[in-house]
Amino acid sequence: MKSLFILFAALWIGAAQSFPTKPVKIIVAFPPGGGTDIVARLVGARLADAWGQPVVIENRAGASGTIGTEIAARAEPDGHTLFMATMGNMTANQHLYAKMAVDPLRAFSPITKVVDVHFVLMANPSLPANNVRELIELAKQRPGEIPYSSSGPGGAPHLAMELFKRQANIDLMHIPYKGSGPSINDLIGGRVMVTMDSLVQSYPHIKSGRLKALAVLSPRRTALLPDVPTVGETLPGYALTNWFGLLAPVATPKDTVSKIYIDTSKVLKETDLRKKIADLGADVVGNSPEEFGAAMRAESAQWAEVIKASNIRAEE
């Protein structure tokens, strides 16, 4: 009996050590060009080198990320399909939708939080407001008239702006999109006037002057935009940081999850990758599966209270 147990244990360990045995897919629940997509491609390319297998990014957008979340949750739990999730996917959507096909916190095994992402309040250059105070004053003069975009109802950009509206006591017109890429494209084109989204995809547009930064949402100013104040400097107590993290379907073997975590942690320690991510406006994290899971559960409880108190709905 003991020898049989040792044999099975050896086979189990051997299976994990040989992972991956075929190309790995990372599902992103938003269109190409958004921050989640950009980070997934950067990390995926490094994992492909480490594993000697292609790592393919598959964009499955729609319904504020719930479509991609459900597809990833139902994938074969062998580690060859992973999910690059966001705060909205994992800790907010379940409180926004009356019915979801999967419970995100139960449907996945956490691997690691990859990055914390700095958010910025930005506007089309034609908007006659250059900071938080001027935007609030303008919105009070034109209640419900200034259109703002988001990556979709219930996503981090939507939640961030709804919290801002609530604290500033203003009304803006919400125009939801199917991802941050099209949201920012229409902001540049002037079809909407303002948004809150990550620096990962917006910094090049701010740097070029196609968009103007009014404030950053983090508790402290960011090195990329040192002269741009925080929202909290005008609205004390306001702060928000989004994140992107790697997960696997819940039935994925623990040793496979552990190997993916170890390999991803090594990749995230590479100096040049950390610099690339920092230059995009994000900070590498790389915490353990246990730490990541505990943080998501705590954050979900916080968002449940905020969403209920703010009466935020997914469908508008």
Brief summary:
Helices cover 46% and strands 20% of the residues.
What does this structure look like?
This protein has 316 residues and is of the alpha/beta class. Helix content is 46%, strand content 20%. The chain has twelve helices and ten strands. The radius of gyration is 20 Å and the shape is globular.
Strand percentage: 15-25%
Q: How many strands appear in the DSSP assignment?
A: 10
The termini sit apart by 61 Å
Coarse structural class: alpha/beta
- What ranges have pLDDT less than 50 throughout 5 or more consecutive residues? 1-14
Query: What would the principal axes of the Cα set say about the shape?
Result: globular
Largest sheet descriptor: 10 strands, mixed
What is the multimeric organization of the chains shown?
single chain
Rg value: 20 Å
Q: Number of helix segments?
A: 12
- The average pLDDT score comes to 91
Ordered list of secondary-structure elements with their pairings:
Layout: H1 2-18, E1 24-28, H2 35-51, E2 55-59, H3 66-73, E3 81-86, H4 87-96, H5 104-107, E4 108-123, H6 132-141, E5 147-150, H7 156-168, E6 173-176, H8 180-189, E7 194-198, H9 199-208, E8 212-216, E9 241-249, H10 254-268, H11 271-280, E10 282-284, H12 289-310
Parallel strand pairs: 1-2, 1-3, 5-6, 5-7
Antiparallel strand pairs: 3-9, 4-7, 4-8, 4-9, 4-10
Descriptors for this entry?
single chain; 316 residues; alpha/beta; ten-stranded mixed β-sheet; 12 helices; 10 strands; 20% strand; globular
